[in-house]
Inverse folding.
């Protein structure tokens, strides 16, 4: 299960990712709570969270091109340092009482710029630090860190937020990002091939490159639907806790922490069952579970039911994202890995950011509960229609679909009879 930890550079990156991701999820908790306190509106909560990941729409092609041209390790150090400085600015403004809605939105945007680069760089670094046969294990364990941070970040930040206010919680975020930057220094230099920077049309090249790999392209479209419909609930989650469940602000931290714990368990299960013979069943389980568990959480009548269903929301979503990312990462060459990964980040994070903002706005005019219930159901219906239309998605429901990840770089892969 822990095979990939045998590679020292991977261990340093894993620890750096754990610290940075914990800072990210602590930020989600503190930013949401602070914006709701400032504005009493889920629209502004959704906008704030949108700004923390929305820049992927414009910057993803450039982050991928830089990752293929320069030292990925140092770019990751720089982006984590920017996040540390930004969250430190949040702490200073909150402590001094000068925090305002415009300042919050500006700092959220600045954080979002650094976050886009970190997402691309960390994912791009992983395949070069382990042997190809260990890639799914490496990606799954990496998700253990990422999703474990969804548990650890809010777990650490919630008592600070409740007892010391937003300023104390922001200091934690800054500390975690500072640690992430320092740990990343030990990963070692990592660069793409000698032709990595030769293509000027970043977005077009990424599109053509991935379109030549139908299984990878199908996985990207499936993840786009997944992020749009099952992972856009974060903008309305604080309002769901206060309005539909009728519990206090600390309960929001408890629910977010439990979702993160579920993601850890799901990622560990996937890391332990990385063999090809399990992938079909795990893919089906994670796909159906992502939609069904979200609908159950939305229908929850009490915090205890929401917490239990939230655990399965986290576990199934983490498994689905890890499996599709491993498929995509295994389908591309190192020279193009940064650009391909950045395109993946753009086509997945952008819908999640936009829909999350939209969901937050809708939660101001209607209850969050029906939005969460219907989102999960719509995802299942959409995936069923997509499976009927796409032979490549149907191939992922078979063992053979997971046995061959790569396709020729110049010609589309032929569909087997």
């Amino acid at each position: 299960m822990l095979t990939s930890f045998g590679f020292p550079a991977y261990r340093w990156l894993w620890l750096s990712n754990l610290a940075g991701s914990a800072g990210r999820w602590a930020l989600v908790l503190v930013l949401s709570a602070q914006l709701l306190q400032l504005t009493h509106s889920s629209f502004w909560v959704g906008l704030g969270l949108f700004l923390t990941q929305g820049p992927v729409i414009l910057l993803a092609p450039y982050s991928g091109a830089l990752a293929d041209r320069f030292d990925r390790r140092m770019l990751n150090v720089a982006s984590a340092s920017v996040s540390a400085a930004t969250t430190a600015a949040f702490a200073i403004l909150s402590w001094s009482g000068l925090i305002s809605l415009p300042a919050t939105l500006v700092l959220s945007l600045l954080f979002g710029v650094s976050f886009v680069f970190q997402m691309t760089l960390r994912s791009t670094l992983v395949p070069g630090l382990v042997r190809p046969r260990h890639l799914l294990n490496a990606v799954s364990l990496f998700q253990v860190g990422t999703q474990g941070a969804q548990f650890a970040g809010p777990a650490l930040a919630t008592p600070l937020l409740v007892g010391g206010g937003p300023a104390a919680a922001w200091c934690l975020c800054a500390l975690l990002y500072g640690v992430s930057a320092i740990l990343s220094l030990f990963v070692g230099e990592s660069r793409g091939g000698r032709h990595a920077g030769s293509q000027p049309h970043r977005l077009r090249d990424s599109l053509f490159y991935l379109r030549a790999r139908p299984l990878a392209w199908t996985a990207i479209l499936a993840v786009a639907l997944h992020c749009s419909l099952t992972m856009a609930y974060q903008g309305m989650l604080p309002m769901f806790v206060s309005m539909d469940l009728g519990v206090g602000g600390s309960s929001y931290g408890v629910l977010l922490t439990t979702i993160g714990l579920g993601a850890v368990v799901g990622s560990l299960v996937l890391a332990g069952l990385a063999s090809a013979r399990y992938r079909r069943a795990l893919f089906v389980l994670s796909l159906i579970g992502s939609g069904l568990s979200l609908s159950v959480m939305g229908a929850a009548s009490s915090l205890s039911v929401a917490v239990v269903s939230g655990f399965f929301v986290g576990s199934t979503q983490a498994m689905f994202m890890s499996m599709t990312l491993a498929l995509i990462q295994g389908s591309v060459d190192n020279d193009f890995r940064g650009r391909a990964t950045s395109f993946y980040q753009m086509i997945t994070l952008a819908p999640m950011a936009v829909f999350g903002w939209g969901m937050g706005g809708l939660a101001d005019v209607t209850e969050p509960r029906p939005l969460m219930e219907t989102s999960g159901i719509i995802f299942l219906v959409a995936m069923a229609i997509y499976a009927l239309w796409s032979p490549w998605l149907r191939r992922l429901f078979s063992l053979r679909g997971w046995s061959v990840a790569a396709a020729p770089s110049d010609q589309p892969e032929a569909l087997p009879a």
Q: What stands out?
A: The two ends are 35 Å apart (CA to CA). Residues 194-201, 405-417 have pLDDT under 50 and may be disordered.
